[in-house]
């Protein structure tokens, strides 16, 4: 696979005013989302829901790519057209989540490591043949008493780097995602310190494994106070801390950084991204790769009346895409 192709894909993922929609929930995760709105988690409901999202009229105007799950990348529209074909026709690059989720890290109570490296080379070859051009692997870092440990950070960075190297070997742009969770009562400074250590460890590991940064995208968590922290932070504080942290740890050669929403409200996720871009220019485009903050309004509507609210649900997806696209340019207004 040529380096140029990887670079081209990576740059297209963060084209100006465009970002990514994450619809790669595992069956267990989408079951939780469906339960919350009273939907049954059948294969047909999952397929129909993803079809509704992916066939949103005009989605490609502000969405450069979508991250799918193993089940979803094999599914088709009601009319029998593979989802990947619908996406490519609309200029949306198919991506695929390839990790197998988090498991307790032995010897490190309260911490997890992401698994899924066994057999990954063959799976990547299959996903490429199915149309995927980028992949995602999510590591999870918890903040708490005496955690994260260096052991946990290193184990996760090592796995991310091995995954990224395998992706590039097989023609897929690795989206590396070390998510520092919002859960807990820690303050924003603690989140800053942890995120900085995690990112420096990750880029050290990517270097060790000879990962070409020009063909890599970082999916980062924002620097935020924990959900239960008494001291809230303003939009400007979050934006400034996040940008400072990224500048201190992410090489400028990276083609782009996208953020996860991580449990922020739709509006917070958009406002934070917008504020960061207003502080630019930065060494890299800063855009979005939101799951919940792209989908939650649409899911609620669709669950109430799948047929009757179909167009209305799609309208909210298009609206979220437009707002986040503007935020990626620092041009969003409330
Ligand atoms: P959220 O935006 O809902 O955090 O999901 C993004 C994602 O893909 C997390 O891995």
UniProtKB/TrEMBL annotation:
Which reaction is this enzyme known to catalyze? beta-D-fructose 1,6-bisphosphate = D-glyceraldehyde 3-phosphate + dihydroxyacetone phosphate
Name the top EC class: lyase
Which pathway does UniProt place it in? Carbohydrate degradation; glycolysis; D-glyceraldehyde 3-phosphate and glycerone phosphate from D-glucose: step 4/4
Q: Which UniProt keywords apply?
A: Glycolysis, Lyase
Q: Which GO terms describe its molecular function?
A: fructose-bisphosphate aldolase activity
> What PROSITE patterns does this protein's entry cite?
ALDOLASE_CLASS_I
What processes does the entry annotate via GO biological process terms?
A: glycolytic process
In its keyword annotation, does this UniProt entry include Lyase? yes
Q: Which domain of life is it from?
A: Bacteria
Tell me which InterPro entries the record gives.
Aldolase_I_AS (IPR029768), Aldolase_TIM (IPR013785), FBA_I (IPR000741)
In the Enzyme Commission scheme, what number(s) does this protein have? Answer: 4.1.2.13
Q: Which family does it belong to?
A: Belongs to the class I fructose-bisphosphate aldolase family.
Name this polypeptide is given: Fructose-bisphosphate aldolase
The record lists the organism as: Rehaibacterium terrae
